[in-house]
Amino acid sequence: MLIQETGLRLSVLLTFFVFETNAQKQIPVICYHEITKSDTGRQTGERISEKNFINQIRSLHDSGYHTILPDALYSYLTSNTKLPDKPIMISFDDSHEEHYTAAAPILERYHFRAVFFVMTVTINKHNYLKASEIKSLSDSGHVIGCHTWDHPNLKRALHVDWHRQLDIPKQMLENLTAKPVYYFAYPYGEWDERAIAALKMSGFHAAFQL
Q1: Other C-beta atoms within 10 Å of 7: how many?
Q2: Ranges 45-49, 58-62, 165-169: which has the least confidence
Q3: Which of 173-188 are b and which e, b meaning 16 or more Cβ less than 10 Å from the residue's Cβ?
Q4: Whole-angstrom Cα distance, residue 189 to residue 191?
Q5: Could you tell me which of 148, 115, 135 has the C-alpha nearest to residue 179?
Q6: Is the pLDDT of residue 42 over 50?
């Protein structure tokens, strides 16, 4: 996953899970999607078993990594503020309920924090995050970010209702968490200049792309 600041355009130099700006060191940003109970079957960039997820998080912890949240990453990129040794950011897309029932307890076990990018059309629907779970994640020290209303491809769509896709979800999530929502993840990792301008107008500080 890559980060792109919505006011200051950042130079993306790598294409998978890391970004680099100027002479600053690379900071890994890992993006998870679906977490499955079974450890059989195909594991892809959008699907991982709970067993493998546990192994990955344990490995990061045992290797001395420290999780950071988007505010710290943003400050580092814009003001060169200091980060902990071996920083890494962990993120989740698409609002799967396993992010709360499976991933969050594992993160807590290792004192890790993450950012959860929520598409609001799925809130309280079967197999997706409930409003109470989103608030609980926020109250536990995780960050809630926006992933649009219903996951359109912002680059390919001829017309995007930005108020529906950005403003309403942002306000909904802020009402749920009682905290500002400043960070966004592009559906499918797709973006264009229209999206950047709309995000800036809606008050987002930074956007992430796969």
Answers
A1: 11
A2: 45-49
A3: beebbeeebbbbbbbe
A4: 7
A5: 135
A6: yes
Tally the C-alpha atoms within 13 A of residue 53's C-alpha that lie toward its C-beta.
Answer: 29
93-115: average pLDDT = 98
pTM, two decimals, is 0.88
- 135-159 pLDDT, tens digit each: 999 999 999 999 999 999 999 988 9
pLDDT given at position 151? 95
Residue with tokens 């309280």: 124
